Amino acid sequence: MRAPRTRRSDPLAAAPQGRPVRRSRLVPLLSRSAPTYLCLIGLWVLLRGALLATGLLLQLVFDTLSGTGRAGMSAWSLIALVAAAEAAKVAVWYGVILSRVEPHFTYRIRAALQVNALGAILRRPAGRALDRTGGDAVSRFGEDTDEVGVFAIWSASNLARLIIAVGALIIMLGIDAVVTLGLVVPVVVMVLASRALARPLREYQHAGRRAASEVSSVVGEAVGGVQAIKVGRAEERFVARLRDANAVRLRFAIREVLLTTVQTSLFNGTAALGTGFVLLLAAASMRGGDFTVGDLALFVFYIQFITEAVTALGMFFARYQKAELSMRRVAELADDESAVIARTETYLRSEPPRPAPPGDRPAPLRLLQAHGLTARYPGTSRGIRDIDLHLPAGTVTVVTGRIGSGKSTLLQVLLGLLPAERGTVLWNGAPVDDPGTFLIPPRSSFVPQVPRLFSGTIRENILLGASSSPAEVAEAVRLAVLEDDIAGLDKGLDTVIGPRGLRLSGGQMQRIAAARMAVRRTDLMVFDDLSNALDVTTELRLWDRLLDDDGATILAVSHRRSILRRADQIVVLVEGETVAVGTLEELLEDCAEMRHLWAADESVPGDAHAGRVEHD
Ligand SMILES: Nc1ncnc2c1ncn2[C@@H]1O[C@H](COP(=O)(O)OP(=O)(O)OP(=O)(O)O)[C@@H](O)[C@H]1O
């Protein structure tokens, strides 16, 4: 199959920072959950609609009490009805909306965004999985998805507020149009004023979010590099960076809070002014006898709907923009924003289904080939060009070259961990469409230069979910030359490593990664420069054991004589291109670069024509 092309540039990521968000991402997200969203709005409309009815009942109560009653019921019966309506409201509010529908809806939106964003990251070539700092990504996964989830329920509740306010206005207009207008005019003024404040508020929110990400990044770097900071005596520099980043965040946070407060005060003040107008105008109408005590009670009761709706309307723009901004930041985690808002099953109330058991073991490797592999790091001319590989099953191929000659890049492009610009990978003669998902266990495994271990026991780190037997784990430990280290630990394979456990040496980490590879019994084993962390003797023992293991096909980056001697073929790279391929004897005869590299590695004495080196 063809190696993947360079990934599509992300139109979102390319958008200049600080620009207002134009295309809505929230609307498609919410429309995917339309039934639940509409159901939530409907519940709120019902709930607040009951309050409208309560207002009408109050009107009847007061008209009955003041002797202008039209209800045909006693005041006490009406009061009992009001109390029943209130009780029903509280039951629906707490029993249905707050305890069930809202939490489920908000967490489902958050979980779907997180699952989709994580899936999009994991689908990228591994070497480019996350093109931002861990702290920044965590902030997007946490705060930004939270913002979107909260907006979904807040907006449903407040859209219902607006609908009910319209209903209240219609009822009030039917009673007295002039008094009602006393409320409406300040509302219009407020909406216009809120529009004027929206733009600067949006800019402060945007800048505030960026500043918060920067703070998270600095904290993340500091926490991840405590040792490097201490060794380099860089504490003050980091504290200064944190102080600067926090100062920027504080500046924008204060501006945002200030502007939001001004906006809220404006709404509240305007609403209070509207209340005053109602009272003044109602007094005049009451003198004329057109406006009853019950009408006044209804107006005073309904004022809350108008003021709440006015406040909600004003906040709506700000919160909508904030949530859109958060959606954009979550979408930036993926190459394709539609992947982030795709419908995804979330399992908030039940366990997810277990993954399907792996199918039959694929046909064993006979031949792995690569033709014309080419890749460049973005914005540079560095990388690899037109590299061919030919790896028959059961052979050892060593890629060697000077520092920076492209050895690691070649392995990563071959395995699909970095995207290729050009080139083809063939497994048993058949093209591989996506090496990143094909060259994995049980076909291929990889020990990178800097292995990644996780907090947990050594056994968990070796297995990483594989279901190998204890005997298979023990064999993997032996192949990886780890048995003496394990024997020296009280809890053996069950020793916890990581931040809360044992600190391992670089060599131990590398050998645990090698055991992780060995336990998977893959056809192809790929190693990126074990010499980085292993001493000569240990590396020699590891190669001996792996090569004694029948049938392994090995591709290794190395400059060590121990493995160069054992190689069936050596590929020599210079500046990202192959300059020679052959056995050690052939290359020492014909290739000046190989002679230079051989002379440079004097860690293992001996000559090129020696057979197996004796050791142990
Ligand atoms: N992420 C990156 N961005 C830009 N350039 C890079 C990146 N990674 C590597 N390079 C450059 O690409 C070239 C090949 O790097 P690569 O790591 O493949 O070399 P190498 O032969 O494996 O080196 P080493 O022996 O140090 O492991 C080098 O010039 C390196 O500086």
User: Quick check: average pLDDT?
Assistant: 84
State the CATH class of the largest domain: Mainly Alpha
Q: Tally the structural domains.
A: 3
Across the major sheet, the strand order is 6-9-10-3-11-12
CATH topology grouping of the largest domain: ABC transporter transmembrane region fold
Bound molecules: adenosine-5'-triphosphate
Written description of the protein model:
- The chain is of the alpha/beta class and 616 residues long.
- It folds into three domains: 25-340, ABC transporter type 1, transmembrane domain (ABC transporter transmembrane region fold, Up-down Bundle), CATH 1.20.1560.10; 362-443 and 523-616, P-loop containing nucleotide triphosphate hydrolases (Rossmann fold); 452-521, Rossmann fold (3-Layer(aba) Sandwich), CATH 3.40.50.300.
- 59% of the residues lie in helices and 10% in strands.
- It has a six-stranded mixed sheet, sandwiched between helices.
- The longest helix is centred in the middle third of the chain and has 53 residues, at 235-287.
- It is elongated and about 115 Å long.
- Mean pLDDT is 84; it is low at 1-21 and 604-616.
- The structure holds adenosine-5'-triphosphate.
- Residues 377, 380, 382-383, 401, 403-409, 529 line the site of adenosine-5'-triphosphate.
